[in-house]
Specification:
Strand content: 15-25%
Number of helices: 18
Family: Belongs to the oxygen-dependent FAD-linked oxidoreductase family.
GO molecular function: FAD binding; oxidoreductase activity
Keywords: FAD, Flavoprotein, Oxidoreductase, Signal
CATH architecture of the largest domain: 3-Layer(aba) Sandwich
Radius of gyration: 24 Å
CATH class of the largest domain: Alpha Beta
InterPro entries: FAD-bd_PCMH (IPR016166), FAD-bd_PCMH-like_sf (IPR036318), FAD-bd_PCMH_sub2 (IPR016169), FAD-linked_Oxidoreductase (IPR050416), Oxid_FAD_bind_N (IPR006094)
Pfam families: FAD_binding_4
Distance between the termini: 47 Å
Length: about 550
């Protein structure tokens, strides 16, 4: 087949032939979208790319052939921005993930765009060839393929790392290649911050798109509820700015809907004053657990009184001791605020609390997120109930001995509260799709974090966590505290995070995806992480 005929056929796979600059008027992908013409609008002459010359026919093609053509085409267009296996850029990508499961993924190539139109071109070339892709901001998801594409194109946003302010410094524009350390460090000289992550290496992208619990959330809400606008590359390669007044349905969907609607190339977040904080971890023995849980519940319920407090409690066994470690953060340099006095009346065996800037705090908390281990996070939610919270902790410590033979294993149960101020802020700027805004009261977000050494223990760990949480959910239904919400940023690979948003919100998200991506490019060619239907992986344990 002649190349021009092939390209004409391939081009029928695609959106709307318009200039691929940022646009502000609603655009719906036309049935006769032409991928080749869209690439031409970006200055890419498909007929000049040698890698596509032998690419014959529209018949079924192997992943290897499709992605060989896609990666060679990217390399032809972008040169050194593309790295193949064995190259330094490739190895730097695969070795720098948080979890070993992600490090084990071998993409066909790694592409490091430097501007939004680079991303448009990559999406369209993937679409033209049928090569699967993934995109990485920080790479802090735990499971295989979440932000790296096995055998496909892994788009690494590392070089799209600008942080700028608008004229009146009310909005910070943050590139997806930033983590929260680089973001806060750029804003600190101006005395500013944004509602972002709590550990330094967490990427901006996945965090915001999954919701985003922050130190500041009792004052301002979650990160997704503090986005002024998103710059996003749609499936047709078109670059749009989605806000409360422009592409407002897409804006709503991106505030918790994950990677299902496009690749975000700029996060425009409202700025807030940078705090000088006080906080750290107070650690308690098992005899104090009921008092610790009572204090934890009371801080949640008093969030309407003092929104400067942010807390979580981790329950774990180490060195033969059962412990509760309460991370108590305060957004003022106050070592003994009234809201934490109950905690401070409970005898602790250690306390790391000190005065810290926001930059110092995220660096400190990074030590709780060890790299290069096998990892799983797995959350559920229940309505806040102190008696039930105590029951869950007792169940947890009764089951931990089952993991004694897991090499390097460290299971941790973590309690957080979704408070009334957080829930109220979910109505800001048209709301979000999380399904929590109408909650009758605070929500108890609990999740298991577990790290271990050997892949031979994977299914043992997964089965243990699943068994524990199934028992918790069953009891929650019996006592009437069940809540279907699943926090995407902690969700495990066997969970259907979007289903936890409720049937109506899930249906609306699917409608919005169909509007902006009628050929399901971001569902089929970008299959990793949490899609609109089902879990990323089917359990086999």
């Amino acid at each position: 087949m002649h190349l021009s005929t092939l390209i004409s056929g391939l081009s029928a796979i695609g959106g709307l032939t318009v200039a691929h600059a940022a646009v502000t008027n609603p655009v719906i992908e036309a049935d006769d979208f032409n991928v080749t013409a869209a690439l031409g609008d970006l200055g890419v002459d498909v007929s000049s790319i040698p890698a596509l010359e032998p690419y014959t026919g529209l018949e079924a093609r192997s992943t290897d052939l499709a992605c060989a053509a896609a990666c060679a085409s990217l390399s032809f267009v972008f040169g050194s921005k593309v790295s193949g296996q064995g190259a330094d850029g490739y190895d730097n990508f695969t070795s720098s993930f948080w979890s070993v499961q992600q490090e084990e993924v071998e993409p066909r190539c790694v592409f490091r765009p430097t501007k939004n139109t680079d991303v448009s071109t990559a999406v369209l070339l993937a679409r033209l060839t049928g090569c699967k892709f993934a995109a990485r901001s920080g790479g802090h998801a735990a499971f295989t393929g979440a932000s790296s594409a096995p055998g496909g194109i892994s788009i690494w946003f590392k070089d799209m790392n600008a942080v700028t302010l608008n004229a009146d410094k009310t909005v910070a524009s943050i590139g997806p290649g930033n983590n929260w350390l680089s973001t806060y460090s750029a804003l600190e000289p101006y005395g500013l911050a944004v509602v972002g992550g709590r550990a330094s290496s967490i990427g901006v992208g996945g965090f915001v798109l999954g919701g985003g619990i922050s130190y500041h959330s009792n004052l301002y809400g979650w990160s997704c509820d503090n986005v002024e606008s998103f710059e996003v590359v749609t499936a047709s390669g078109l670059i749009v700015t989605a806000s409360a007044t422009s592409f407002s349905d897409l804006y709503w969907a991106l505030r918790g809907g994950g990677n299902n609607f496009g690749l975000v190339t700029k996060y425009n977040l409202y700025t807030i004053p940078a705090p000088h904080m006080y906080g750290g971890a107070r650690t308690f023995l098992q005899t104090a657990f009921p008092d610790v849980i009572n204090a934890w519940v009371n801080v949640i319920n008093n969030a309407t009184v003092d929104g400067n407090a942010q807390q979580y409690v981790a329950f774990l066994q180490t060195q033969g001791m059962s412990l509760a470690s309460a991370e108590l953060t305060y957004l003022k340099n106050d070592s003994n605020p009234e809201i934490y006095k109950q905690y401070r009346s409970i005898p602790a065996i250690s306390d790391t609390s000190s005065s810290k800037s926001l930059v110092e705090y995220v660096r400190y908390l990074e030590t709780e997120n060890p790299y290069h281990l096998r990892e799983v996070y797995w959350p559920i939610s229940v309505n806040l109930d102190e008696k039930f919270a105590n029951w869950v902790v007792n169940l947890w410590f009764s089951m931990i001995p089952q993991m004694a033979n897991v090499t390097g294993g460290q299971p941790v149960l973590i309690y957080q509260g979704i408070t009334e101020p957080m829930l109220n802020n979910m109505n800001n700027y048209g709301g979000n799709p999380l399904g929590l805004a109408g909650s009758a009261g605070p929500v108890h977000l609990l999740h298991v974090a577990f790290w271990w050494n050997n892949s031979s223990d994977d299914n043992t760990v997964y089965a243990f966590v699943n068994s524990f949480l199934e028992k918790v959910l069953a009891e929650a239904k019996v006592v009437g505290v069940y809540n279907e919400y699943i926090y995407m940023n902690y969700a495990g690979m066997f969970q259907d995070a979007i289903a936890g948003y409720g049937a109506a919100n899930k249906a609306q998200l699917k409608n919005i995806a169909k509007k902006y991506d009628p050929r399901e490019i971001y569902q089929v060619l970008q299959p990793g992480y949490f899609k609109l239907e089902g879990s990323p992986v089917t359990p086999n344990f």
